[in-house]
Amino acid sequence: MHTAPRCDRTTAWAALQGHYQAHGRDFDLREAFARDPGRFDSLSFEAPGLFADLSKNHLDLATLKLLCELARECRLEQRRDALLAGEPFNHTEGRAVLHTALRAPKGTGPFSDEVHEVLTRMLNFVEEVRDTANSGIKHIVNIGIGGSDLGPQMVVPALDAFVHPGLTFHFVSNVDGHDIAPVLRRLKPAETLFIIASKTFTTQETMANAQVAKAWFLQHGGTDTRRHFVATTTNVKAAAEFGIDTTFGFWDWVGGRYSLWSAIGLPIALAIGAEHFRELLAGAHAMDRHFATTPVERNLPALLGLLDVWYRNFHRYTSRSVAPYHQGLKRLPAYLQQLEMESNGKCVDLAGEPLPYATSPVVWGEPGTNGQHAYFQMLHQGTDVIPVEFILVKQPTHPYADLHTKLLANGLAQAQALMLGKSSEQAAQEKAPTASADLDRQTLAKHRTFPGNRPSTTLLLDQLTPGSLGALIALYEHRVFTSGALWGINSFDQWGVELGKALCNDLLPRLSSGNVDGLDGSTAGLLKRVTA
Ligand code: F6P
């Protein structure tokens, strides 16, 4: 295992604490721009497929310099190289972490032969199914959960402009029958391909839904399960036992939340076709090269990861809101929740010692402009400071130019409003036609004041294409690696999901028997009520 000093045991950490007290705590964005007309240029960065404006954040070049020193002291670059070389970074499970190998061009990455053998086989299958006149397939149902769901579920709508017009995609994840029931109601067995997506092929929700799908298929006249069910899994044996013999495999060195590049990406490939799927991989690979070769000072994923540490541990911001100004990215916040919070929601270091500092923030959000009409009120005038990440796309893939201009204006305006705010003097001078005539001007102005100085990052893509989306997702993966490496945690295990699974297995038979022996008072009381 690659060792390095934990962030809080470095000299840069102590220096950052001093810097925070002297300049960070009272940092004011408006003053920073007034002081430095070159701030936008010096704090904006290019990476493959995107441009990032970090200038509306609570930092300056001195902060960045110290954060880069922190990265060096924590041996970020050496850790990155070890990760990319396939060292067993997931030390609690003794596994390498090599999702980057899935998007490396043939002959260049670890396990290249295996990776490209499955990729070619999968993409050949994809082209057969996409020939809908011959395959007869009109509906693809992906049954999977967590990492076996969120990636495809996020990418397919994001790339809607590239999706096969004769195919409709459904994603069933929840063990709640309200998820699968409305999907099955609209299907015919002969027109449907089910993908059972599960790395382990043991996950309760996925196995239960797969059984429901198979029973439905047979009850509704389906005749050839072997043609209408395929599996994407590392557990080929279990898939065969289920009755599936078309299986696209992957490997234990692909983490669930990093798996959309593997066979788990089958629904994506079916949606956008082989060529575009290869472009998605190539976009991610370009970001991998950027991360692997660019000095930390200009390395965008590394800089964003460092900013996350600065905000979480020094400013103590507890969450980050993601606002994609592209409706296709509506599932990006949910995807990032798993990527970031399952990876970095940890409270012990690599040696198992409790951490004296905070790790993953809460990641949440909705597409703009919808979020503006819901929770942005709190971002502007609430008591917490929540950094916002705006994702803007220059060119739409629809013909409604006027709508797109309005969308862009909204995204830019929100970032501007968060930063500039509005003083009570400004508010007092303004007319407020909808305000109550019973209130005096000064009191009203207090309600209409915006503190401003609220930080945001803006990521700008030229267009949302397979290539730029691949780069964007890889950017987030490496950013999460960076903050996790600095925090000295294992970003690649997820023991926190185990306890609930085990307790569910204990409770399941009790729901039939009503036996509450040995349960805590609350669970026993609730169990009695749900079974009454
Ligand atoms: O919820 C835990 C988890 O293991 C995730 O990490 C994973 O993506 C998901 O369950 C699904 O697991 P599988 O692909 O093995 O069904």
UniProtKB/TrEMBL annotation:
Keywords: Cytoplasm, Gluconeogenesis, Glycolysis, Isomerase. The keyword Cytoplasm applies. The active site is at residues 342, 373, 501. One of its GO terms (cellular component) is cytosol. Its EC number is 5.3.1.9. It catalyses: alpha-D-glucose 6-phosphate = beta-D-fructose 6-phosphate. Transmembrane segments: none annotated. One of its GO terms (molecular function) is glucose-6-phosphate isomerase activity. SUPFAM superfamilies: SIS domain. It comes from the Bacteria. Belongs to the GPI family. Catalyzes the reversible isomerization of glucose-6-phosphate to fructose-6-phosphate. This is Glucose-6-phosphate isomerase. It comes from Caldimonas brevitalea.
